[in-house]
Design a protein that fits this description.
3 strands; 26% strand; 28% helix; alpha+beta
């Protein structure tokens, strides 16, 4: 008499459970983290004039950490320090929530300031 065996080994016996950490790996590309960081920076900056280049980011990944550099342009005058702090906070929070990585370093680099036209400046001279 022959017995039928399955890949699990013995007949009718379920395969041994493999721990989730041993099943494989998930790798998230640098460009994906950079895109998430850039979108988070756009959310934090808010509305900018149409001629402003949207924020973009570069990322260096190492294991479960991401070091991020955000490049952006701001309108002037504004509280540059507060805007950069808001961008940094939003980027760290979003990357942590969406990717599950620690962000020990988020550098915000202001590339250019755009002068906001004074109210009524486009209407000519006022008396």
């Amino acid at each position: 008499m022959t017995s039928v065996t399955s890949e699990a080994g013995e007949l009718g016996r379920p395969p041994a459970a493999v721990a989730p950490g041993e099943r494989g790996a998930t790798r998230i590309a640098d460009r994906v983290v950079a895109k998430i960081a850039a979108q988070a920076a756009r959310e934090a900056v808010g509305t900018l004039p149409t001629d402003v280049t949207p924020p973009h980011a570069t990322v260096a990944l190492h294991h479960e950490t991401a070091r991020i550099r955000i490049h952006l342009e701001l309108d002037y005058p504004c509280d540059i320090g507060a805007r950069c702090c808001a961008v940094r906070r939003q980027v760290v929070e979003r990357v942590g929530a969406l990717v599950g990585m620690e962000v020990p370093e988020a550098v915000v680099q202001v590339e250019r300031l755009h002068l906001v036209a004074a109210h009524g400046a486009g209407q000519g001279r006022t008396r």
